[in-house]
């Protein structure tokens, strides 16, 4: 596979060209955190690619928290514009991997998700400086990307070192070849060194590993073993709404003028009414049952379906939790 180098002085022009035929989003540092912002020629372009994933996950682009999925009696199709997600980290790509399986790989195929996915170019970036909340390495992921995105880059001393993983990615390189030069061996050595350092840092942060039979342990666990964490939970739901892999939703119909809209909303298994059925019966009426369902869903049920965990190790649940519950501690102790 050929690698290509984009010099720093050409980055802005490259971004301008990409944004000429679609919306472009990238990470920008603000108050110590990176956030997703849309490229706008009227404001200064200040990307930050070397910090960890953005505070927001990228699932909003594919699976919005509130989504009109149908209108009656006249259904109006709103076209999706081409867009570029620039600087996505590997932990957020795990979320896309989960969604590709759930919304496209399983039946029925979700046409809204598929169209958004097809019209989105993902340009991912290495994560050279993992932080204490990161644990992607415990789930079989690396702090760099080797597939799934269309293009990936590493920030090296001489610029941005790109690899193309898909035909879309190759087409971008070809269409903008004047911006790129073929990478030198020294650039590739720098990338290898940066990646090795990131892995070492992650292994230091997470010196303990999860048991190899984690799925079976979660499936057989006694709920009393997680009693302390459960008792601390205040049901703020930050762990679920901030998670890049959660995919539960509910459908509701609302009147709008003379029409009826069917709205898809995010659902969360910690909601007291999540499992409630007709007649008012609720098989998970207690918090301990709902609390453990999250672990079963991500580490047992999904693993049995797809042989992978529906967790990316992004650490958003750790940082968002009002009670500061660390999911790693629970899983380490099983």
UniProtKB/TrEMBL annotation:
Keywords: Iron, Iron-sulfur, Metal-binding. Pfam families: Fer4_22 (PF17179). Residues 222-254 form the 4Fe-4S ferredoxin-type domain. Signal peptide: none annotated. PROSITE patterns: 4FE4S_FER_1 (PS00198), 4FE4S_FER_2 (PS51379). GO terms for molecular function: iron-sulfur cluster binding; metal ion binding. InterPro entries: 4Fe4S_Fe-S-bd (IPR017896), 4Fe4S_Fe_S_CS (IPR017900). The keyword Metal-binding applies. This is 4Fe-4S ferredoxin-type domain-containing protein. It comes from candidate division WOR_3 bacterium SM23_42.
């Amino acid at each position: 596979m050929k690698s290509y180098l984009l010099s720093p002085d050409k980055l802005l022009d490259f971004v301008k060209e990409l944004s000429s035929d679609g919306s472009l989003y990238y990470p920008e540092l603000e108050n110590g955190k990176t956030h997703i912002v849309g490229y706008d020629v009227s404001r200064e372009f200040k990307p930050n690619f070397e910090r960890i994933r953005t505070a927001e996950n990228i699932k909003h682009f594919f699976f919005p928290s509130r989504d009109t999925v149908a209108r009656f009696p006249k259904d109006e199709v709103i076209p999706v514009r081409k867009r570029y997600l620039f600087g996505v980290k590997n932990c957020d790509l795990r979320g896309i991997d989960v969604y590709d399986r759930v919304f496209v790989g399983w039946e029925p195929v979700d046409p809204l998700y598929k169209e958004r996915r097809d019209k989105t170019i993902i340009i991912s970036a290495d994560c050279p400086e993992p932080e204490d909340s990161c644990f992607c390495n415990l789930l079989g992921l690396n702090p760099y990307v080797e597939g799934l995105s269309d293009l990936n880059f590493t920030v090296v001393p001489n610029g941005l070192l790109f690899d193309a993983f898909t035909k879309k990615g190759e087409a971008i390189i070809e269409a903008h070849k004047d911006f790129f030069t073929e990478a030198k061996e020294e650039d590739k050595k720098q990338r290898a060194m940066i990646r090795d350092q990131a892995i070492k840092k992650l292994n230091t942060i997470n010196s303990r590993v999860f048991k190899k039979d984690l799925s079976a342990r979660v499936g057989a666990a006694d709920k009393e073993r997680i009693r302390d964490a459960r008792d601390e939970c205040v049901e703020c739901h930050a762990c679920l709404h901030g998670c890049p892999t959660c995919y539960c939703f509910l459908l509701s119909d609302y009147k709008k003028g003379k029409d009826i809209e069917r709205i898809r909303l995010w659902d969360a298994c910690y909601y007291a009414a999540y499992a409630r059925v007709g007649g008012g019966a609720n098989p998970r009426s207690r918090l301990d049952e709902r609390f453990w369902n999250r672990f079963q869903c991500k580490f047992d049920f999904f693993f049995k379906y797809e042989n992978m965990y529906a967790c990316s190790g992004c650490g958003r649940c750790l940082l968002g939790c009002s009670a500061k519950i660390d999911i790693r501690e629970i899983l380490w102790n099983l």
